[in-house]
Amino acid sequence: MKLFGKKKNEDGENEGKGISLQLRQSWTIRLGSEPDPTKGGIGLHRKKKDDKVYILKNIDREDLAEDRTFSQLFEKLEQAVQKRFEEPKHYYLNYLYPGSPLKVNVDMDNHDQMMAAYDKFGLLPKKKFAKLKVRILVRVPGSAMFRTDKPKTVHQRLDNRNAINRFLAEQFARGRVDLQNFTHIMGSKLADAKAELYGIVPDGEREFHNYLIVQKTKKKKNVSPEDLYDKGQITIKEFEDMKFPELKVKREKMNADYPLPEPLSVCVICGEEETANIQCLECEHKACSDCVYREFTIHPEKQPFLLMHHIFCCKNGRPIRGYLPPSHLVDPGNTTQFVNHPNNIGTGT
């Protein structure tokens, strides 16, 4: 069957040459914006120099009723115009019914409105129907009539059964898939149907549908401790540890040897790793025993361990001898108080 064409019988003759307009029609269509009456245009019946007329012959009502997305109707229109159209929702089907003063805009993506217009055309006498002219208008004034890019023939992902069935039905109606392949794919499992469908997708669009042939990695199934024990893969003790981890922690604490080993860290003085076990009195830094003995036990200046935070943790260096503030003078005339001050002992002052 040709796209909205005349059906032929086995002898090759056209069926129903005198068929009524209610079942088969031929539309005279014009494209572009609606003529401006202020510039001499007389509605749709005024032919301008840049106004081209296209005739779409033999539009069967049965085929149009099955064409839910009007993809076949637009394919027939693109064959006549030799240009690519946008989606049906981009256009109006505009017509002036004989005897009516008002023009009607039909949403070309509304199946009920399109079928109602088709049935309304079929009620006209043949002479009035021959004078009927419709126009395809863009819904948004000023927008382009045709596509400038290469449109996709597959407008959605084919990763579920409903989308696959819809795509197969559309390809079968266009004659791109024979009945044998159609039946085979429809009866296949989803994974097999995706692989078969990848070969039907047009060559220029297969890169957008590589998900049809990508094999998904199976996720490992979580096995319960009961299943592992039933299969003999774990012992009863391992089963208890997996089933009750809080009891495992409690048992490990009970069986631990005390005192617990102190974790070793980096020495803040020498920088050696896993040697420090003596913590600073003011922060979390630690020093090893050798460094503490060298700096705070046998050091010539007899510096106290209290200075570890100031010298090594804060990196401020060793303070001077007179870091203690002088005491206030009890007797202003007695200068020996300065000589006996702890900061001045041994300095000769």
Q: Which properties best describe this structure?
A:
5-stranded mixed beta sheet, alpha+beta, 349 residues, disordered C terminus, elongated
Characterize the overall form: elongated
The proportion of strand residues reads 5-15%
Instruction: Please work out how many helical segments DSSP would assign.
Output: 13
- Order of SSEs, N→C? EEHHEEHHEHHHHHHEEHHH
Number of strands: 7
Terminal CA distance reads 122 Å
> What are the low-pLDDT stretches, counting only 5+ consecutive residues below 50?
40-47, 343-349
- Fraction of residues in helix: 25-40%
Compute the CA-based radius of gyration: 46 Å
Spatially, the strands of the biggest sheet line up as 2-1-5-3-4
**How many strands, what sense, and barrel or not for the largest sheet?**
5 strands, mixed
Q: In terms of structural class, how would the helical and strand content be classed?
A: alpha+beta
Quote the average pLDDT. 80
